[in-house]
Amino acid sequence: MAPSAAPPRRPREDVIGDVRGRTDVGRLDAILGGLAFDAVFVPQGRKWLVTARDASGRLVRAAVVADEK
Length: 69
Known about the structure:
alpha+beta
């Protein structure tokens, strides 16, 4: 299997948990009354794109996270 086609090394939930646990994201979560998180694996770069949206669906934070354990 080519490296770009390899499955992610980390579970989606763990990657979201890393971003959710950041101080700046925690503050936004408290101020905005809850955020909805999503994570998409980008195999070409072996990275995750994690997004956080407020209750109205507005993107309030995006983070690129390496797929490393």
